[in-house]
Specification:
The complex is a heterodimer of chains A (296) and B (161). The N and C termini of chain A lie far apart (58 Å). Chain A is 32% helix and 24% strand. In chain A, a hairpin with a 2-residue loop joins strand 8 and strand 9. Chain A is built from 11 helices and 14 strands. By secondary structure, chain B is an alpha+beta fold. Chain B has 2 domains: 82 residues, Roll (Ubiquitin-like (UB roll)); 66 residues, [2Fe-2S]-binding domain (DNA polymerase, domain 1, Orthogonal Bundle). Chains A and B meet through strand 1, helix 2 and helix 6 of A and strand 4 of B.
């Protein structure tokens, strides 16, 4: 029975971002921000400690919108995965994000789990961050001191550590549309197709040149995001550099292997081994490149 | 600040509120409120961490795991547990007809997840049924009869289906 363990010291449920930021600032990091609760409450239910004070973000209109702009979609931090997966502009222009949202746990989880929570929980295995990395997303944080927008690629600084200050809240994520004709590819590898935590996951966004007269095309720009391949969600800068101007589909597997050897740092853990993760990561990249070479 | 006193939501057609003491604490799990406080034990506790779906209920018509919902987030919402499902729902008879229930622990969550599916997709494919129920684990039936029951219920038209 868990009821004895579930009395929070304070339960704040502000209805404006300004109020939420004021609470955040005055608590000096001593309140836990909650939204979908699909990760945090697992810990509460397992533990017997008294809960910390809670700042519930689920009633803030500022965090609940999806705004479709001319160059990007801006998604409020408290928007749940089910809404992202079902949104026509996201499905149409950012299909990888619809795909990762649809693979974030079961439907019961997707109805609750938020994009902001998936980022701020800062798990290296999180399902949506690889896609945000590949798309070159930006994150907007706010505090009583003001707001700032950062490249998401720099946001995760170490295992479960981010650039967010204790008085800040993640407000929104802005995901730019890829260049027309870019190939995108998201693949999550787990023990089971539904609601597994990934052994390794890849999001790839590959822009190619037009086909030359001999039918070949080259990689113009390739960006990657990996989950469960290191202490944080990772990009693959060596791989991106190595692939630039490479002809498709004749890319050497060894080139990918060598680049990923320095980009990724997977570990052995309960879900998989480092060796398996390295091999699958290479396989996933090769599959993404093969798909990009098929784009008409 | 006493948020708990202003908290109010509807459970199976009845209004619960912090003001009259029917909600003890905003941090209580919806699952515990249902089973321990409201005495509605149709909702089961399986894993307690959102993996098994035994505690699934509908909030504003959408399926959620009640072990991962603090009551404090339900202000103004409408919750339906298996006790609130109309007796005439074709899923009930379809589950019985197909032999889709064995030990019964997963059944309330299965039926509510299926109800949420049929409300948004009245004529689902087998794949859609499988995806909609992927968060509900059954250790008895092997799932085939459950899927058959949902597809069967989908063919029943009229009533409140």
């Amino acid at each position: 029975m868990n009821s004895a363990a579930t009395a929070a010291s304070e339960w704040y449920r502000p209805t404006s971002l300004a109020d939420a930021l004021a609470i955040r600032a005055s608590a000096r990091g001593a309140v836990v921000a909650i939204a979908g609760c699909t990760d945090l409450m697992v810990g509460w239910n397992a533990g017997s400690r008294r809960l910390p004070s809670v700042l519930d973000l689920s009633a803030l209109p500022e965090l609940g919108a999806i705004e479709v702009g001319p160059d990007a979609v801006t998604i409020g931090a408290a928007v749940c995965c089910a809404r992202i997966a079902a949104h026509p502009a996201i499905a149409g222009r950012l299909p990888m994000l619809a795909s990762s949202a649809r693979q974030t746990g079961s439907i019961a989880i997707q109805n609750r789990a938020t994009l902001g929570g998936n980022i701020m929980n800062a798990s290296p295995a999180a399902d949506n961050p690889p896609v945000l990395l590949a798309f070159g997303a930006r994150v907007t944080l706010a505090s009583v001191r003001g707001s700032r927008t950062l490249d998401y690629a720099a946001f995760h600084t170490g295992y479960k550590r981010t650039l967010a200050e204790p008085d800040e809240l993640l407000v929104s994520v802005t995901v730019p549309y890829p260049a027309p004709g870019a190939s995108s590819h998201y693949r999550k590898v787990g023990t089971r197709r539904a609601q597994a935590i990934s052994k390794v996951a890849l999001a790839a966004l590959i822009e190619t040149t037009d086909r030359a007269e001999d039918g070949t095309r080259r990689v113009r720009d390739a960006r990657f995001g990996f989950a469960s391949a290191g202490p944080v969600p990772l990009t693959a800068p060596s791989l991106s550099a190595a692939l630039r101007d490479s002809p498709l589909p004749a890319i050497d597997r060894l080139l990918v292997e060598r680049a990923l050897a320095s980009d990724l740092s997977p570990i052995d853990d309960i879900r998989s081994t480092a060796a398996y993760r390295r091999q699958v990561a290479v396989n996933l990249v090769m599959a993404a490149l093969a798909e990009a070479s098929q784009v008409p | 600040m006493n948020f708990a006193r202003t908290l109010e939501f509807t459970l199976n057609g009845r209004v619960l509120s912090g003001a009259d003491g029917s909600i003890a604490s905003p941090s209580m799990r919806l699952l515990d409120l249902l089973r321990l406080q409201a005495g509605q034990t149709g909702t089961k506790e399986g894993c307690g961490e959102g993996e098994c779906g035994a505690c699934a209920v509908l909030v504003d018509g959408e399926v959620v795991n009640s072990c991962l919902v603090p009551v404090g987030q339900l202000h103004g919402r409408t919750v339906m547990s298996i006790e609130g499902l109309p007796r005439t729902d074709p899923l009930l008879e379809a589950f019985a007809r197909a032999g889709a229930t064995q030990c019964g622990i997963c059944t309330p969550g299965m039926i509510l997840a299926a109800r949420a599916l049929l409300d948004r997709q009245p004529d689902p494919s087998l794949d859609e049924v499988r995806e909609a129920l992927a968060g509900n684990l059954c250790r008895c039936t092997g799932y085939a009869r459950i899927y058959a029951a949902v597809l069967d219920a989908a063919t029943v038209r009229g009533g409140d289906a």
